[in-house]
Amino acid sequence: MSRLVVAGTLALCIGVALALFLRVDTNPSAVFGQGAAPITALETEAGRQGAILIRADDPKLEVEIAKQAVALLDHPAIERISTGPDAGNSDVLDWLWQHRFRLSPPRIEDLEPEAMAARLTEAVDLLTSSQAMVLGDRPLRDPTGSFARLIERMDALRPELGNREGFWHSPDGGLLIFLTFEDRPLDARAMATLTASLRGLADGTSINLHLSGPRFVSTEVSAATERGASLAGGIAGVLLILWLAFALRDLRGFATVLLPLALGLGTAALSLQLIFGSVHAIALGFGGALAGLALDYPLHLAGHGRAGSRRARRLIGIGMATTVTAFLAMTGAGLEVLTQTGLFVAIGLSVAALSSMLLIARPAATRTLPLERLFWRLPGGLVTLATISAMGAAMVWQAKPMIDRPLFDLPPRVESDLKTVQSAAAIPTTRHLLRVSGETAQQVLERETQLFPVLDQAIKKGEIGGYQMAASSLPPVSSQVPDLPDAEAMSSAFEAALTVAGLQPDYADTLRKSYAAAQSAVLVEPTNWRGLAELAPLLAGLSIAGDRAEDTVLLHPPLDADRLAARLEQANLPGVTFEDLADSIWASVAELRRTAALWLGIGALCAALILAAMLRNLAGLVRILLTVGTSLALTAAVLTAVLGSLTVFQIVALTLVVGIGVDYALFLNPAARRHDRVLAARSVSLCAGSTLLAFVTMAWSDVRVMGEIGLTVSLGVLVVVVLCLGMMGHGRPLASETRD
Amino acid sequence: MACTGSIPSNAVEITLPADDGALRYREEIRHPALPFPKVATGTFRIGPNDRLIRSQETPEVEIFEIGQDVVWVRKAEDGEANMLPIPDQMRALFDFLRTLRSGETLVVEADQPRSVDPDGWTAEIGTFDTDGSVSVIACGERMLGYLVRTGDGIERRVLFSTGAGKSE
User: Fold this and answer.
1) Which of A98, A693, A722, B114 is the one with CA 20 to 30 A from B46?
2) How many other CB atoms sit within 10 Å of the CB of residue A365?
3) Which of these, A245, A351, A343, lies nearest to A294 by C-alpha position?
4) Separation of CA A394 from chain center
5) What DSSP element (H or E) covers A29?
6) What band does A140 get if pLDDT is binned at 50, 70 and 90?
């Protein structure tokens, strides 16, 4: 009893320490490494954009909620927000004014006095309109209409969003706020708080608040995964407790089984917290999934009772050393999440095994299932195992990996939000884009001009919904001033136009000077466009560094990537490349899968060596390795056949199958004495029951990653048990042994 | 009635003329190209959220709701608003008017350049670009209007239509 009290107190202390100090992080760089595509995708200009759409029946309520959202967006994670057109920058107007003849050259007919008189009359009327506040009297100083047409064109290119009470207003209804996140790695915790606060504005009201943008999506997928994991964990926990209550009969037995598990997991989590300063959610998740395996040790001891406890301790020691070695090898992979997972499992299992042995000195009687009645004889024995194993491995090896199988599903609300905001605000896709490069910004704009007809044709054919590029915001600046009459020759035309318009003829001198200045304006290479507030959002994709300029062309859905790629290939425009950002993301995921598989393979080899050294029985070693190997190959083959390929999470889950398989195969030894075989069958029934309860529950989870892990482990454990029982038939029959 | 007082040399605490909630104005735009001023009329009032609202009635209806950095312009009272940035030079003037329109007084400091004006006296309250300026036009302690001049000879003179009182 005193050992139980000490262990209970220790578990309590560890629990308190974890409650106080445990910090769970979801940093993606721990999974993919620094600079990998899945992380940088959230750090690109497109990855840092977001939008909020607020819709309510009452327009005043919409404005009120939008204001509250703006207050919440005054947040360290947000670099800037846009609720309407940016405040003007007179430098932009000055630049457009100076270069108007290059940007929007007048036609010869625009220089006729009658045409200029009409323009002057319009310009006089503009003096009492709101436009004069922005444009001043520039339209009056340019009777050729060059500047007015340029402004009209830029106005037409503005987003088709209205404005209500200071907020962008979608033609589909609702107010929009656009935001840009700070240019630094995603802080998952801060994002989760911000997202929850924004969602909270609409909770319990009739308001619809829709969030869009890669960082919001990432945060909400994480939250949905966490909720799914909690639900599956809760249900599995209840079922496990009921199962253990049935098997262990009394509270003391219950405590002796659960305390090693609690100590193992608690010590593992605390150790990682001390070593790394935080514990990654994936390492913690797999640690939680390990519950099934860590629980096996006390259950084996309990299931063996007093008579078999010595043998059980020895086999637990071998099983634990083998599994721990396999997982410790993962620390060599160089990825923090794999290192953490390896250490978590190693520490958790070691502590659970040792504390089981210390706590369960005199195992109490348990209620078990008579698994020994299911012993059967696998025809061909080891040869059959070797054959199945080879076939399964070949099937997995030859299967073409489905590299774009998603790891996570979008929660329905997130998917619906993306579509709603997309439709309301015409937001471009963040997956596909075009890059246009050149030696200068001017060359980029000229190349984009050549791209216009190709993309316009793609819109007509339904390959893209639209596009957005620097040249569609601003025409390329012609390097040549168009061939126009000189200013002196225009003087009489200006005078005539002023007279026709009823204005002062002597103002012609001002018009002449203005015309001459536009004609002789020295071209300013617009390298500083991005510093001009009005153009900055339109030219966000344009980058100029040294002798290379590049612009990102954003594409609007719906998008048919294959047909668009074919069209662009056929057009063969210089400096234009089509990119699918998902390619680099899937390459990173595939690399992670290769790394995990490689180091788990190395771990398996190390574990086999440890097993050989501790077992010192070649026949037993071959049987165990073949049984476990066949279970692994068969499980992987079935999953590959059903799902197409294995994800990295399934590969790591298979290591649990290996750990469990080694334990079961160690205990279910056909060469053991009859009594030991019966005890082993019963303890394995206890362990398999608890493991299957946990993982079958997980397999039903609607979180894809949880479901796949649950399915993998459940199937694997089932195959291991069936094959171990099949090999038991190769020992002496229980009945004949009884007759001996 | 013309203002007969002299230019005050000390700091002056000025107020807007009394009105019934909407202060009428007449704006004359003088431009070197125009043989005569272009005229616009309308009212100033304080709207919801303490925003200054300038409602132009002629020659075309435009309602300007003046915020801190931007102006929302509507073609009708319940029309869709178009947002425009406030030019730097106008920001000080709008702040000045908003304060006065809220019923408060403002002090025109003694060192602010003053000059004689056909309607009374002017005090320059801000400059922009190289030779642009924004001035208030007053008679005694009563503000009559304002004047925005740009360097290229353009002048926007806005006079409130309640009339000028006699200088004290």
Assistant:
1) B114
2) 12
3) A351
4) 32
5) helix A29-32
6) very high
**Which of B64, B80, B152 comes nearest A162 by C-beta?**
B80
pLDDT of A530 strictly over 50: no
Q: Which residues contact A569 (CB under 8 A, 6 or more apart)?
A: none
Instruction: Give SS3 for B134.
Output: strand
Other CB atoms within 10 Å distance of the CB of residue A96 = 20
CB A558 within 8 A of CB A419: no
Residues of B in contact with A87 (CB under 8 A): 69-70, 85-86
pLDDT along chain B (168 residues), means of 10: 72 78 91 95 83 90 83 76 72 80 78 80 83 87 88 88 45
Average confidence (pLDDT) over A66-81: 88
Residue B147, Cα to own-chain centre: how many angstroms?
A: 7
Closest CA to A263 of A346, A196, A356: A356
**How are the residues of chain A apportioned to helix, strand and coil, as percentages rounded to the nearest 5?**
65, 10, 25
Could you give the CA distance from residue A675 to residue A687 in angstroms, rounded to a whole number? 19
Interval A57-71 mean pLDDT = 88
Q: pLDDT tens for residues A661-698?
A: 999 999 998 888 888 888 889 889 988 988 888 888 88
The alpha-carbon radius of gyration of chain B (Å, integer) is 16
Query: Is B111 in the A-facing interface, judged by CB distances under 8 Å?
Result: no
Those of residues 110-169 in A touching chain B at CB distance below 8 A are: 120, 124-125, 127-130, 133-134, 136-137, 140, 162-166, 169
Cα angle for residues A173, A179, A182 (degrees, 5° grid): 170
Query: Containing H/E element for A687?
Result: helix A674-699
Give residues with Cβ within 8 angstroms of A1, minimum separation 6: none
pLDDT tens string A153-202 = 666 655 566 666 778 888 788 898 988 888 887 777 888 899 999 999 99
SS3 A381: helix
Please tell me the distance from the alpha carbon of residue A14 to that of residue A8, in angstroms, as a whole number. Answer: 10
Those residues whose C-beta lies under 8 Å from the C-beta of residue A523, and which sit 6 or more positions away, are A99, A102, A477, A479
Q: Whole-model pTM? A: 0.65
Closest Cα partner for A10 from A251, A258, A266? A266
> Touching check for A94 and chain B: CB below 8 Å?
no
Q: How many CB atoms lie within 10 A of CB B129?
A: 12
B window 35-94, beta carbon within 8 A of A: 35, 38-40, 56, 59-60, 62, 64, 67, 69-73, 80-88, 90
How far is Cα A686 from Cα A692, in angstroms, rounded to an integer? Answer: 10
SS (H, E, C) A68-111: HHHHHCCCCCEEEEECCCCCCCHHHHHHHHHCHHHHCCCCHHHH
Interatomic CA distance for residues A246 and A396, integer angstroms: 40
From A42-56, A81-95, A197-211, A591-605, the region with the lowest mean pLDDT? A81-95
Q: What is the pLDDT of residue B34?
A: 96
Phi-psi category of residue A655: left, alpha or beta, with phi > 0 → left and psi -120 to 50 → alpha: alpha
- What is the phi/psi pair of residue A312, to 5°? -60, -40
User: For strand A548-556 and strand A432-438, is the pairing parallel, antiparallel, or unpaired?
Assistant: antiparallel
Going by their DSSP bridges, the two strands A279-280 and A24-25 should be labelled as: parallel
Phi, psi of B82, rounded to the nearest 5 degrees: -110, 130
Confidence of residue A291 (pLDDT cuts 50, 70, 90): low
Distances in Å between the alpha carbon of A650 and those of A210, A343, A655? 33, 19, 9
**What three-state secondary structure class fits B43?**
strand
